[in-house]
Write a structure and sequence with these properties.
Strand content of chain B: under 5%
Number of strands of chain B: 2
Largest sheet of chain A: 6 strands, mixed
Number of strands of chain A: 17
Number of helices of chain B: 14
Shape of chain A: globular
CATH topology of one domain in chain A: Rossmann fold
Oligomer: heterodimer
Largest interface: A-B, 66 and 47 residues
Number of domains of chain B: 2
Structural class of chain A: alpha/beta
Helix content of chain B: 55-70%
Strand content of chain A: 15-25%
Distance between the termini of chain B: 58 Å
């Protein structure tokens, strides 16, 4: 199913889905893993293990009482050799539990298939699984599945757009793990009480659309539908996806639940389907490893806590000296400063580019072409916002709706003068928040 | 590769991917779009057209290079904006225009109109249009001494432009609309051939370099005003409306000068105001003004209104947000 009623502006950022045909390979357990205690939006976890402790696969090693949080489990069996502090990709510090692996991968005794009979027990089980939004935002999923207006929600939307160039891990997940997706959808719809479900998939993944359509039909799931999205960027941004599928505008700060929608990433839902079968928490992740500096680009399943270096070694190592390594996609991913950083739950790609392909911005003067405005899904005026930011004019930034910006980077992408317009908006939001303008 | 950690990685804000269409490629597209007109002009007026264009490009790029050198600014000639200005200046003068005067025009455009206001992106008025007006006022004779097209059967050293003929009231001597469409008429070097300019303009619209709004509103307004005027005053209204669209600088102005990013509004509604405003001022000058042609004045005036138009037209589309919602 697809509707072509109205589309928000979008851009053609290229697809580069080089690994779409690469069946997922499971990466061997490395000698050491470093498991971060902040793998979700919200309060970081406190380590529950100390140096010298032995741990097993799936064992709870980090948790907190904070509301917005998700517990963290060991991805390996082995011995804790230390608790480290490391500078994080966003600034600030991460606490890392460092585990020397014994390669036996013994399962923790505490693992059991969750028993669920109502919404509270379902939500509790989802929290205990350690699940966070795997599309990139890493918001603890159990909070999403327990909206305040539980009686008003009626529709499940799965985000399977995968609009970021290069990334194919959700695509591979749909092809290789479709039954878990469907089982996850059933559970979510049953316990939250939802009537309809839509899986939003970009048109460049016809095999995934066909497979799900076929399985929905074969299993008589008449209330589950695929929804074909334009294969343009950023159709997978939450607020864009909701608009494309339902026609409803979702301002910044509005939750999908306020519009009657539970929105989840397709890989998160596949995990739900799996977890309620074997009880193994979120300890590994499917991701795309690509970029011109990687010898053998492929899709892999990596244990959480493996270093990016180990991941790239598994993909044949570096083919050329990397100049830029990105966690996530090239449009919204984070350029990291060291390949010693560990894989976290929401990693869906590691991209390494040599200096030939690494884009190092060199800003020139704005020529007022207006392409940034035409590219913005929400019709914001990036040039005017950049000007207001340069003057640190909080009121003007607020008037120009800087808070509506979702930092998709489309404006920066199309800018012929190579101005970091999306980044200015990010900084501009900080100015508005600091000034306390509502 | 051996075990080795890279701590010299480039860290920058997302996105890590950008379009290939940068400023210099954009300018190059516009220059390419002007080439059909240069070819027709060279056919009509002779090889001097190419030399004049080369002189103007060299002078414009040279002045920009020198200005940046002297003031110690980052060199910007690579963005091709100065080269484009050079081509446009050549297009806006008669093909027999003295080189030294053309070079003065380039100086005015690049140094006074563009660089003194802060360089590319910061100028208030279109450099080439302003240069044309300054040259027109400074060297009135040379700027209105039109070479004879090769296919003209008039045996004379100079000819007149169709608008000049019209201003003198001798409507019977006007060229046919087909001659004007092809460009076999007197006029500024690059503005005579409507078909060549149309091809270039449509190419830019197809490549999404320019929006069709300004050219459509500009040309449409000229057409409608001429139609009403001649219908009210007697005469073949349709023929005269087409005549006004094809004559003078409307085609060049509408597709290549009024659409200059820097000096035109970015919001769609602003572009409508820009296009209609240019059309109205052009026709007011042509029909009631002292000069036969008003395209350059119209564009300059609308350039000056652009910041105001942009301010008035800010409309945020998504989320129902209005500008001053407080």
């Amino acid at each position: 199913m697809s509707s072509n009623a109205k589309h928000l502006p979008s851009i053609d950022a290229g697809h580069y889905k080089n690994t779409a045909g690469c069946e997922t390979e499971v990466m061997p357990i490395p000698d050491v893993v470093k498991i971060s205690m902040s793998q979700h939006i919200g309060a970081p976890c406190k380590p529950l293990v100390a140096k010298g402790d032995t741990v097993k696969v799936g064992q709870l090693i980090g948790d907190t009482d904070a509301f917005v949080s998700a517990p963290i489990h060991s991805s390996v069996s082995g011995t804790v050799v230390g608790i480290e502090t490391q500078r994080s990709a966003v600034g600030g510090n991460d606490t890392l539990v460092v585990i020397e692996t014994d390669k036996k991968q013994e399962l923790w005794e505490g693992i059991k298939v969750p028993e669920v009979n109502d919404l509270p027990s379902f939500v509790k089980a989802v929290r205990e699984s350690g699940l966070v939004g795997l599309g990139g935002a890493s918001f603890p999923t159990h909070i999403k599945y327990n909206p305040r207006n539980i009686d008003d929600v009626h529709t499940l939307i799965l985000n399977a757009a995968e609009c970021e160039p290069f990334i194919t891990s959700d695509h591979r997940g749909m092809l290789e793990d479709a039954q878990n997706i469907i089982d996850g959808m059933k559970l979510i719809m049953e316990y939250i009480g939802l009537d309809e479900a839509y899986v939003g998939i970009e048109a460049n993944k016809p095999d995934a659309i066909a497979l799900l359509d076929k399985m929905f039909a074969e299993q008589g799931l008449t209330n589950m539908h695929t929804f074909t999205l334009q294969d343009r960027y950023p159709k997978g941004a939450e607020r864009v996806l909701v608009y494309e599928i339902t026609g409803k505008e979702m301002k910044a700060g509005v939750l999908p639940a306020d519009l009657g929608i539970i929105l989840s990433n397709v890989t998160s839902v596949a995990f739900v389907g799996q977890y309620f079968k074997d009880g193994i928490p979120l300890i590994q992740k499917r991701m795309t490893v690509d970029g011109d500096a990687v010898a053998q680009p492929k899709n892999i399943i990596a244990p959480i806590g493996a270093s990016i270096h180990d991941v790239i070694e598994f993909c044949g190592g570096y083919k050329a000296e990397p100049k830029k390594i990105i966690m996530g996609g090239p449009m919204m991913g984070r350029a990291i400063f060291s390949d010693e950083m560990p894989i976290v739950k929401n990693n869906n790609a590691i991209l390494a580019f040599s200096k030939d392909k690494a884009y190092i911005p060199e800003e020139t003067a704005c020529i007022n072409c207006g392409r940034c405005h035409s590219a913005c899904p929400f019709g914001l005026l990036p040039t005017a916002l950049a000007e207001a930011y340069e003057r640190r004019d909080a009121q003007k930034l607020s008037d120009l709706q800087v808070m509506q910006c979702m930092e998709c980077g489309s404006c920066s992408y199309v800018c012929p003068a190579r101005r970091p317009l999306g980044f200015f908006n990010k900084l501009g939001k900080g100015v508005v928040k600091e000034a306390g303008i509502k | 590769m051996d075990k080795k950690y890279y701590n010299n990685l480039a860290v920058a804000s997302a996105p890590h991917l950008v379009t290939a269409m940068d400023t210099s490629k954009t300018m190059m597209m516009v220059i390419i779009a002007l080439m059909p007109s240069l070819l027709v002009s060279t056919y009509v007026f002779g090889f001097r057209c190419i030399i004049l264009t080369a002189v103007c490009v060299a002078a414009s790029v040279g002045f920009e290079w020198l200005y940046n050198k002297i003031t110690g600014k980052r060199q910007t000639v690579g963005d091709l904006s100065a080269a484009l200005t050079g081509v446009l200046i050549a297009f806006n003068v008669p093909s027999c225009f003295p080189y030294w005067m053309a070079i003065i025009g380039c100086f005015i455009a690049i140094v006074i109109v563009k660089q003194l206001y802060g360089g590319v992106g910061r100028n208030i008025a279109n450099p080439a249009i302003t240069a044309r007006i300054v040259l027109f006022i400074s060297f009135a004779t040379e700027m209105t001494t039109w070479p004879v097209p090769r296919m003209s059967d008039i045996d004379a050293a100079t000819s007149a432009t169709p608008l000049g003929v019209l201003a003198e009231g001798s409507a019977a001597d006007l060229p046919t609309n087909m001659e004007m469409f092809l460009g076999f008429i007197g006029g500024s070097m690059g503005e005579v051939s409507a078909i060549a300019l149309l091809i270039g303009g449509l190419f830019l619209i197809w490549k999404k370099i320019i929006s069709p709004i300004i050219p459509a509103c500009f040309i449409g307004t000229v057409f409608v005003i001429a139609l009403i005027y001649y219908a009210a005053n007697g005469g073949d209204a349709l023929t005269m409306a087409i005549f006004h669209v094809l004559a003078g600088g409307v085609m060049l102005g509408a597709f290549f000068m009024a659409t200059d990013y820097v000096t035109s509004p970015i919001m769609p509604l602003g572009k409508v105001i820009m296009g209609v405003g240019c059309g109205v001022i052009t026709m007011v000058v042509r029909l009631w003004g002292a000069y036969p042609e008003g395209v350059s004045f119209s564009i300059l005036l609308m350039n000056l209104c652009t910041p105001l138009i942009d301010q008035l037209c800010i409309k945020l589309t998504y989320g129902g947000a209005k500008k001053n919602e407080k």
